[in-house]
Amino acid sequence: MRILGLITARGGSKGIPGKNIKILGSIPLINYTIASAKESKLLSKIVLSSDDEEIMKISGQQGVEVPFKRPGELAEDNTPSLKVIQHALDFFKAKNENFDAICLLQPTTPFRRNGLIDDAIRKFISGNYDSLISVREIPTDFNPHWAFEDHNGILRIATGEKTPIPRRQELPKAYHRDGTIYITATRQIMEENSLLGDNIGFINTMADDYVNIDTISDWERAVEILKTRN
Fold it and tell me: DSSP readout, 85-145?
């Protein structure tokens, strides 16, 4: 199976200016994701999608292919990841280079354990999933069976049930996607216009260091994690 490793890093960042190449520890943030991608033995190609010349330069110096510059209209705050991925796949299709799936790697989740990407790819292939995502377990108190939604001032259980599950022990495990890894079949992306699909596999990253950097406090958390890893 041919899998494209796609690192996405746009230049604009309101919360932390220059976030993707801001120095974390002693190296640019994006270098952590590049190192994880290069450690993989199952990614067929690793490329960068960016609109920013400096990000492109730094990534190229680290051995990542930078075959195109992402158009500005695909680098806005509200640009869906799906559109960015489709742009990359279209680029390679035009060059008669096709992939069975794409592995999206975002620099904002820099801490991936060794082997995680390949473990995820193996599970994706063996399960014949539409997609596979990395997840972390939701604490019991925030389980969707105990969560409520506001319907015009009236609370209803988020799952649609009439009464909540009474005992903690009866709650099914629930997860949230953590953004560390997304793997999706190309047919799902291009034909179904979806990043997930119906048949979604998962890999649990609860045992791994984790932060998804969006704010200054997230950045400070990343700095603290680095101290424990050194």
Answer: HHHHHHHHHHTT---SEEEEE-TTS----TTHHHHHHHHHHHHT-SEEEEEEEPPGGG-GG
